[in-house]
Amino acid sequence: MQTSQIDNQLSLKSAHTCKIGKLFKERRQKLSLSESQVASEIFVNINYIRGIEHGDYSIFPARVFAQQYFKKYANFLNLKLDFFDIYNSQ
After folding, report:
1. According to DSSP H, which parts of 1-90 are helical?
2. How far is Cα of residue 77 from the mean position of the Cα atoms in its chain?
3. Is the dihedral of CA 56, 85, 78, 40 positive or negative?
4. pLDDT per residue over 29-86, tens digit each?
5. Considering just the CA atoms, what is the radius of gyration of the chain in Å?
6. How far apart are CA 11 and CA 56, in angstroms?
7. Burial class (CB in 10 A: 0-12, 13-18, 19+), 17
8. Considering the entire predicted model, what is its pTM?
9. How far apart are CA 9 and CA 20, in angstroms?
10. How many Cα atoms within 13 Å fall on the side-chain side of residue 38?
11. Which pLDDT belongs to residue 87?
């Protein structure tokens, strides 16, 4: 992997996305759901669930995937959160 690709992946996580991810994780735990239960229920790869909860969007192949899975997961947990577009914050 080239250095620019590695730098780009590392920059797809921020303090703000980590805080948002923590909200997802806390809500999921409050509902007594495991990561795998959520993934199964909403038909999303468990690694994407983990990526959102850790605020690390480098797991997603493109911005549109991150945005759509973020919305899908937020709706499932009944969280009223806007997607923090780390892709355009540079």
Report:
1. 3-10, 15-30, 35-42, 46-53, 63-76
2. 13
3. negative
4. 999 999 999 999 999 999 999 999 999 999 999 989 999 999 999 999 999 988 877 6
5. 13
6. 9
7. buried
8. 0.81
9. 18
10. 28
11. 65
